[in-house]
Specification:
Structural class: alpha/beta
Strand content: 5-15%
Number of strands: 5
Distance between the termini: 7 Å
Number of helices: 11
Shape: globular
CATH topology of the largest domain: Rossmann fold
CATH class of the largest domain: Alpha Beta
Length: 205
Amino acid sequence: MTRLAISVEGETEEEFVKESPAAHLQDRGVFATPVLLGRARRRVQGGGNVTITGLANEMRHLRYSFDAVTSLVDFYGFRGKRDMSPDDLIRAIREGTGGPGGGLVFPYVQMHEFEGLLFSDVDAFEFVFPGGSIAGLRSVRAQFHTPEDINDNKNTAPSKRIGKLIQGYQKALHGPMVAEVIGLESMRRECPRFDAWLRRLESLG
């Protein structure tokens, strides 16, 4: 049995981990626990504003209580990323963790945010929002090679696109619901970075 901590930036990611990756990994002997990061742990509004130092310190601290530590944070929400790529951020966070654990402390930065995963199968929105603009979501998805390519401009990030097309969408409430309808298999097929991360987690078992 491997005890895995997944540092998450908000309640949406916390709920998603509980309902999907954690349930999937348990059958492989990996028991995953989402741990809210920073302000989110105090249930202060929203996630985002994640910093390299803050996440690295959190992951280093968690290593003393778990066998392995990873993260599920949005590239879109990172503060001070400037011209860094997600892989640049991952390297910087990994360097910041230092200390014990070695390869058992490995950060993951989601492209570009959680809602990107929901574009793996936009028809799933129909189950949560009957009559919503599914055609509009399909049009967005058709413009990109993978859901992970949907860009993070403040006006065109995945969450912004969904909010414009699906009236009443609330990230923390509806995001995990839509994700559950989509399922991990579809997400893995459509999102190669996400799939590679899950394969890494499966290998811990």
